[in-house]
Amino acid sequence: MARSVRERIVDVRRVLAAAQRVYDDREALVDALVAATGLTPPGVELGFASLERTASDDELRSLVQAAGVARHVHVVLSANVFVAPLRALALARAAADRVTLRASPRDPVLARAIVEALEDPAVTLVDERDIARTDADSVHVYARDETIAQVRAQARHDAIVVGHGAGLGVALVTSGADVAQAAADLARDVAAFDQRGCLSPRIALVEGDLERATSFARQLTAALDDFAIRVPRGRLLADEAADAARWRDAAAFAGDLFPGAAHAVGVAAGEALLVPPSGRHLQVHAVPTLVAASRILAPLARQIVTVGSDAREATTRLALPHARTSLLGHMQRPPLDGPVDRRPASRAHPLA
């Protein structure tokens, strides 16, 4: 007999209780997470602030509805954000009586810790990399779009593959914002996970003229410098460092560049956006109106997962109906009400 909504919520609450136990003993995981993620110990602590440990019944009802129903969900995890296994497991457990997880070989730390703390016989970790060998009727993949496509090609013909692909966050600073406060709040969103997640802001649109955008960029540079003292950036991979160097050159050519201790902030006007790579880099863009902001973001619409702003209601005018919204400073901590990524392309697609 299929589980009721209430039973599924109870199962997810057990997952949250396991996450709380892991969080309470998080010091035991710091060294392993530093080695796996490249974050500094303060960076790991900052990341743990985004680990979901509580949720309301209304949020969990929404999560259960979004999860759908399956017999067996197999989850393929990535290594970008070390707390991501919690939400992935919650969604899978809400959907199915049986869950298998393949943790990222680069960062299996939190997935293992949560599964061990959960002690649920319905949930197991597996090392199998051949998707065709799993008997799951639903496969949840958290990875780059290319990897999702490969999984779809390899999965059984009767399986459904749910892809959660790459994305980015956008910040909106409205004309009524306190520029210094907005910069301080946004710095926290940028610093979390060293900007490697799909909720990480890469672009900040500042309503007003170039002078106001430049003032914001200076304030953000100072705020990120302050964060670098309290929460130093971790190591960058070679390709991340190379991408950052190329972006800095392009941003300096297109406008002004404000380098910091372990970051850079570019500022420009016009309609051409230069999306920076991970590593605490941000492109600030002056926009005369919210209508202009919506037009500028249109080419990136399919990539935008979340929008943070000092005035949450202003985000509804950006023509991004599938993006999550939040206040600045809270972009990395959405409620546990479903997948982080709400874009239609990330929903289930039966294989042809």
What is the topological layout?
Layout: H1 5-24, H2 30-37, H3 41-48, H4 57-67, E1 70-76, H5 84-95, E2 96-102, H6 109-118, E3 123-125, E4 138-142, H7 145-154, E5 160-164, E6 168-173, H8 179-191, E7 201-207, H9 210-230, H10 238-254, E8 256-259, E9 264-268, E10 281-287, H11 290-297, E11 304-309, E12 324-327, E13 348-350
Parallel strand pairs: 1-2, 1-4, 2-3, 4-5, 6-7, 6-11, 7-10, 9-10, 11-12
Antiparallel strand pairs: 5-13, 8-9
Question: Could you write a compact summary of the structure shown?
Answer:
This protein is of the alpha/beta class.
Could you please describe the fold and organization of this structure?
The protein is α/β, with parallel strands linked by helices and 352 residues long. The chain has two domains: 161 residues, Aldehyde Dehydrogenase, Chain A, domain 1 (3-Layer(aba) Sandwich), CATH 3.40.605.10; 160 residues, 3-Layer(aba) Sandwich (Aldehyde Dehydrogenase, Chain A, domain 2). The protein has a seven-stranded mixed sheet with strand order 8-9-10-7-6-11-12, sandwiched between helices. Helix 1 crosses helix 4. The C terminus is likely disordered.
